């Protein structure tokens, strides 16, 4: 029964006669009190009373609703909860956010089945002593409270997956649970001065997002580099003067936010160049962390050239030299053939043969070689789970590789792959659609986003940074039903399309692009927790809001939409084309299946020829914009040069003052030029 949005001021006591009702939704009404008859609804399993005007003491009769599995009391004016709520032994989800609660019930630990607790935006100062008994807790949101410490309350929550303690008053790093699959930890906007190594290392095998921004951290422990699954690390606006070199070796780290720190040991140009540049620099300053799967050590160009010369003088490495490695790989399931100057694969690296790699090899790393293509022989390695071919010269991948039935991670960073080569590789209905979880094609030559990627139904992480993408329009994001992390930073994007259609999107980076607008619908994405958008000429979100972090950005975007706006389903798209699609690329009409046309897509029926794009006064506008963009590029170069000169320690005070004045003038001029593009 749904009676939401009706401004109902009260409910009759006779409601108790609806004994068979199992679900009641009364959100956004004007209820101030509940009748006693309400608590005779013993069949209720779902009750949502959020956004009413409940402020008097809730009846202790709440404990009679023993069948409740989910209870929503968000957005009221409650100062405390009835103790009888702790009798709801079947309760699995409790939402009490946006109230005035100063404490949670002392016996809340009796709710043994509770796995979701949303109590953000209250006045909580401490957690009850029984809190640690909530051993089935998975999703815990306590942000925007007044907690100074969590004590040992979290240490026993061994099923915890999501923890949000932002915007509290924490001065002590929380004691995290041992052995939990804790995936995301948000501790930003507190007063933490240190990270407890013992605590953070308890979750080193699971944590992918760590938010420590706007605290008082003076340094990061070296062992933080042992968080080898980390994808997002936000330490903006702290007191850090340096970073541990080990962070540069983290394979999955693609969102590394360090703005607002006095990083005297790292040049500003390195930081402004983005995550990969910073990681590369850190790798030159120290060794990788021990005992975890990390990137190789950074080598300078002179060393690489010497190695290549040595290999050229000695000739190609004979197959016999690989025998020991092959035997070891057949036994361990892992083969690493990095830095071997390979331009072809060793002949024994096949599925059938004396080593039977088709059934024995699970992980293959061919990074830092000179391969221009991956041959069909790789497609014979049918047991592969991870394939890493980074920093080569790849221009093509044999389609048989897309038929590998167990491949979960495909890393192709730093190659020369085009959108067309990815399309040809994936083809129609690749077996990878059911297995691949991570695709990394950063630092390639993609000018468009291949629609074939939408067939990767199990994909969770998609990394597209440092390519030449200009738009994400027309890509069917709704088909990537499991993708949670997307990075399109450092491209040439002018439009994000309907990226908000990705149903499980949790982390999105589109830094350093050419976006003038940001879709406000991102604020409606239910799982989006991390959004990174610096380095765009957009005016949708003010700089002050961006500085406050992801939560504020998302709230700001949502507030720009009309009230009660919901995400509309994506509609079929008719795509223009410049050449006739081949029979292999286009299905027969009215089949209702996805059809590929020049790396764009249509979903049903005929493909219409769209009208020419934009009946603008095009040449005048484009020429003016081109001139402005050229000027902006020149100004950016001049600004970067001046910033580098200011980093020089030998400058006199007078010279430094003159340079700062010149820099301020250039920055002002850049702002004026950028406004002309709006």
Automatic annotation (TrEMBL):
Coiled coil: 625-652
Comp. bias intervals (Polar residues): 581-590
Any GO CC annotation of this UniProt entry: cytoplasm
SUPFAM superfamilies assigned: L domain-like (SSF52058)
Pfam families, per the entry: LRR_1 (PF00560), LRR_14 (PF23598)
Domain spans labelled Disease resistance R13L4/SHOC-2-like LRR: 44-166
Matching Gene3D superfamilies: Ribonuclease Inhibitor
Entries under InterPro entries matching the protein: Leu-rich_rpt, Leu-rich_rpt_typical-subtyp, LRR_dom_sf, LRR_domain-containing, LRR_R13L4/SHOC2-like
Protein name: Leucine rich repeat
Species in which this protein is naturally found: Phytophthora infestans (Potato late blight agent)
């Amino acid at each position: 029964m749904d009676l939401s949005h009706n401004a109902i001021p009260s409910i009759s006591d006779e409601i108790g006669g609806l004994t068979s009702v199992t679900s009641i939704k009364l959100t956004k009404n004007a209820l101030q009190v509940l009748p006693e008859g309400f608590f005779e609804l013993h069949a209720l399993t779902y009750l949502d009373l959020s956004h009413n005007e409940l402020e008097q003491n809730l009846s202790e009769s709440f404990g009679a609703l023993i069948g409740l599995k989910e209870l929503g009391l968000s957005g009221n004016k409650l100062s405390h909860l009835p103790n009888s709520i702790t009798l709801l032994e079947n309760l699995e989800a409790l939402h009490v956010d946006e109230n005035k609660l100063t404490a949670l019930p002392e016996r809340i630990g009796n709710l043994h089945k509770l796995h979701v607790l949303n109590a953000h935006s209250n006045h909580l100062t401490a957690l009850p002593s029984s809190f640690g008994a909530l051993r089935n807790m998975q999703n815990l949101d306590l942000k925007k409270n007044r907690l100074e410490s969590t004590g040992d309350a979290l240490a026993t929550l061994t099923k915890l997956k999501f923890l949000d303690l932002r915007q509290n008053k924490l001065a002590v790093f929380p004691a995290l649970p041992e052995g939990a699959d804790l995936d995301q930890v948000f501790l930003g906007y507190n007063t933490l001065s240190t990270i407890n190594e013992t605590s953070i290392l308890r979750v080193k095998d699971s944590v992918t997002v760590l938010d420590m921004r706007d605290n008082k951290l003076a340094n990061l422990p070296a062992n933080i580099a042992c968080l080898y699954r980390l994808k997002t690390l936000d330490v903006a606006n702290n007191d850090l003067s340096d970073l541990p070199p080990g962070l540069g070796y983290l394979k999955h780290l693609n969102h590394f936010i360090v703005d607002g720190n006095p990083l005297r040991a790292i040049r500003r140009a390195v930081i402004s160049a983005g995550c990969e540049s910073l990681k590369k620099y850190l790798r030159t300053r120290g060794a990788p962390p021990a005992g975890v799967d990390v990137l190789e050590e950074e080598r300078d160009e002179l060393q690489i050239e010497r190695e290549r010369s040595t290999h050229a003088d000695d000739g190609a490495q004979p197959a016999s030299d690989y025998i020991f490695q092959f035997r070891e790989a057949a036994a361990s399931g892992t083969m690493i053939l990095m830095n071997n100057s390979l331009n072809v694969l060793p002949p024994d690296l096949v599925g059938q043969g004396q080593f039977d790699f088709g059934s024995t090899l699970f992980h293959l790393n061919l990074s830092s070689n000179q391969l221009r293509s991956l041959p069909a022989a790789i497609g014979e390695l049918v047991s592969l789970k991870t394939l890493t071919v980074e920093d080569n010269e790849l221009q093509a991948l044999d389609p048989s590789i897309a038929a590998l039935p167990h491949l979960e991670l495909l890393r192709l960073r730093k190659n020369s792959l085009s959108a067309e080569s990815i399309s040809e590789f994936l083809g129609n209905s690749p077996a990878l659609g059911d297995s691949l979880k991570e695709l990394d094609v950063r630092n390639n030559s993609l000018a468009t986003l291949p629609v074939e990627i939408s067939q990767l139904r199990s994909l969770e992480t998609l990394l597209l940074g440092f390519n030449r993408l200009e738009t994400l329009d027309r890509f069917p994001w709704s088909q990537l039903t499991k993708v949670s992390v997307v990075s399109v930073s450092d491209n040439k994007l002018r439009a994000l399309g309907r990226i908000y259609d990705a149903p499980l999107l949790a982390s999105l980076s589109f830094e350093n692009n050419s976006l003038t607008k940001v879709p406000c619908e991102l604020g409606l994405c239910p799982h989006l927790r991390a959004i990174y958008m610096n380095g765009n000429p957009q005016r949708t979100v003010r700089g002050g809001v961006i500085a406050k972090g992801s939560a504020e950005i998302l709230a700001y975007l949502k507030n720009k939409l009309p009230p009660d706006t919901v995400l509309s389903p994506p509609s079929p798209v008719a795509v223009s084309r410049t050449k006739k699609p081949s029979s292999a690329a286009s299905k027969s009409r009215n089949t209702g299946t996805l059809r590929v046309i020049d790396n764009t897509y249509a979903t049903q029926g005929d493909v219409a020829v769209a009208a020419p794009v934009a009946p603008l006064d095009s040449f005048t506008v484009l020429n003016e914009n081109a001139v402005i963009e050229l000027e902006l590029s020149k100004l950016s170069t001049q600004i970067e040069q001046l910033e580098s000169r200011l980093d020089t320690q030998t400058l006199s005070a007078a010279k430094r003052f003159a340079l700062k004045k010149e820099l301020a003038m250039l920055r002002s001029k850049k702002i004026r030029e950028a406004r002309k593009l709006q």
